[in-house]
Write a structure and sequence with these properties.
The structure is a single chain. Helix content is about 50%, strand content about 15%. The protein is of the alpha/beta class. The protein has two domains: about 200 residues, 2-enoyl-CoA Hydratase, Chain A, domain 1, CATH 3.90.226; about 45 residues, Lyase 2-enoyl-coa Hydratase, Chain  A, domain 2 (Orthogonal Bundle). The strands form two sheets. A six-stranded mixed β-sheet has the order 1-2-3-4-6-9, sandwiched between helices. Helix 2 packs parallel to helix 4, helix 5 runs parallel beside helix 6 and helix 10 runs antiparallel to helix 11. It is globular. The protein starts with a helix and ends in a 9-residue tail after the last helix. The N terminus is likely disordered.
């Protein structure tokens, strides 16, 4: 039976912060076909939602996300009308979700507990920031079952130094939250009971800023990271010009000089 998209991905909003919760705890919140479809649906909606200024992604139950749905993948392998075509489509849909997160105008924060494994670790790495509970663990452990985590590798190598990323990919070893923070995979480690509050605090801090500036800055952040130094500065300079010409930016600067709160229109 096909999973209900609304049931497996819950959304509630706290003011300008949207909370998305992976909600298939009995199966460890896998990135099944239905979960990917539900995430893509929300990404499309959030991209047009001017009231939302930050997004938090969490998981129900004991873990954040254990990766792809292996039972579903095996079924796809053996179905007469699927095979290679199914797998190619699956990984393309997954990549669209992951790149869609970085393409959102709002910053996206992963709120991680339990484990984030394989494509679940990819999901964490694809978010703009991440807060984890002290007992959280991370791995790209597909190699342990004979499947190198090649698509999670893309996001992982854009977060971690190469040697650390390669070790994780080839050993399948789980790393603890503090090690993940030291490597650069996550931003903060907090006690489990403080996790939701810490993620919301970070999201609300971002949401207080001028949305136009954050949107422009997020786009530039990812674009410049892929460019040589001189081209990166040229792009960043163009972005600064665009940002400076915004009416609300002028108001923000004037408010700072006048020692008052800005009266932004957004």
């Amino acid at each position: 039976m096909e999973e209900d998209k609304m049931a497996i991905l819950e959304r509630h909003d706290t003011g300008p912060v949207a909370h998305l919760r992976l909600n298939a705890p009995e199966r460890l919140n896998p990135l099944s076909d239905a979960m990917l479809a539900a995430l893509q649906e929300q990404i499309d909606a959030l991209g047009q939602d001017r009231a939302i200024r930050a997004v938090v992604i969490s998981g129900a139950g004991k873990v954040f996300c254990a990766g792809h749905d292996l039972r579903e993948m095996q079924a796809g392998r053996h179905a007469e009308d699927k095979g290679a075509g199914y797998f190619a489509d699956l990984f393309a849909r997954c990549a669209k979700v992951m790149t869609g997160l970085s393409g959102l105008p709002q910053p996206v924060i992963a709120q991680v507990h339990g484990i984030a494994a394989a494509a679940g670790c990819q999901l964490v790495a694809s978010c703009d920031m991440a807060v984890a509970a002290e007992d959280a663990r991370f791995a790209v452990n597909g190699v342990n079952i004979g499947l190198f985590c090649s698509t999670p590798m893309v996001a992982l190598t854009r977060n971690l130094p190469r040697k650390q990323a390669f070790e994780m990919l080839t050993t399948g070893r789980f790393i603890h939250a503090e090690e993940a923070r030291a490597m650069g995979l996550i931003n903060r480690v907090v006690p489990a009971e403080d996790l939701a509050g810490a993620a919301l605090e970070l999201a609300e801090s971002v949401a207080e800023k001028l949305p136009t500036a954050v949107k422009i800055g997020k786009q530039a952040f990812y674009a410049q990271a892929e460019l040589p130094l001189e081209e990166a500065y040229a792009l960043a300079g163009q972005v600064m010009v665009e940002n400076m010409l915004e009416r609300d930016t002028s108001e923000g600067i004037s408010a700072f000089l006048d020692k008052r709160k800005p009266n932004w229109s957004a």
